[in-house]
Structures are given as C-alpha cells and as structure tokens.
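Why does residue order matter? Because the sequence determines the fold. Keep that principle in mind as you read this record.
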Amino acid sequence: MSSWHNGRKDPIWIFGPNGTSDIVSALLNQIYARDIAFALFNEPDVIDLRQIVKVKDVQPGLVFESDRWRVFAEYVDHGNSIGLSESEWPCLGYRFESDGRTITIGGDTIDCDGLQRLGKNADLLVMSCYLADKEIQSPAFERLANHIIASSRQVGKIAKQAGARTLLLTHFRKKSNDLMTSLQEDVRVDFDGEILIGEDGMMIEIK
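Structure:
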C-alpha cells in the first residue's frame, strides 16, 4: 500500500505457502478495499493496486529463478511435530543463492530436516530466537522451545550443524539487557561464527 501510494507501478510479487493468495485477496478486496477505491477516485490516472500485486502460492522446491539468483523453499517444523498438519499449518523456510553466496531464512521453526537442507553451508543464516534458555521455566515455554520455535541454545547447535558463517538472530520475546546477553552466550556455546542481532532497517553485505 505504501509503495503504491508513493507512485509504484512495477509488479509487487508475493510468495508464500498455501493460503497466501487468500490472505492477499482478503487484504485487497476487503480490508483495504475502501482505501484503494478512495485513492482511485481521488487520482483517476493511478494504476489500480490490484493490477500490480502478483501472488504465488508455493511448495517445497525451486520457488524462483532468474539469471542472477535462485530461491528454494522447504517445509520447516512449526508445531507439526505435535500434531499440526503441514497442509493446514504450512511453514516454509527459504534459501537464496546468488553469485556463489547463500542466505537462509529459517522462519519460525525448531531443528528439522527441511531446515538442515536449507541452511547447509549458508553464508548468512537468519533464525528466529524467541527465548533465551533462562526463560524456559514453565511447561508452556518448554513446549514452545521443543516443538514450535527454537530457543537460544538450540539455535547455536543448528547454526553449527549447518556450517553457517554468520548467524542473524531475530524475533525475540521482549527481554532485559541481561537476558539478551544470556541469549547470545547460549548461542556461543556451540556456534563460533559471527553473531548479529537483527534490527528493523538493518542492511548486511554478504562478501
């Protein structure tokens, strides 16, 4: 919406697991329908946003390929090990390959076969790290860390097993400075590569 309001005319591609096209359709044709109609009424020459948004529901495998880069997807385990089906609750991780460099975005997941395939020898591994191990003090948090989204010590093991060069940590539960330090120390037990703490607007150059 923001880029369109600022004059964007180029296609906006949105890729995601089954159900993504339904979500985008609801956004454009229900939730933001009046905003779009008002903009078209106020500026009749503006191209309709719905004409430039392109959506593709994707499955594991090759998602996108150009002469410069390729994107692969795999199912990752986000509660599937405790009974949530992949068909009804799909969660995908992604691997981007370009110019001999690889970026893996794990998504919300624990260690699993799909994540291991995506993350192998990644130059940059982006992992959600919701909990520091010190925070796991209830059955609910134990269930979360074991089956839904990896905790700090698990993330360190995942990065080491993958052979990742740099690890970018994201998606934190609100924490004190002490807990953030503890989280990084947990990761460092197993992973000896570079660790970055994700922030909005961060830019990282892969060399």
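Residues 2-57 form one domain.
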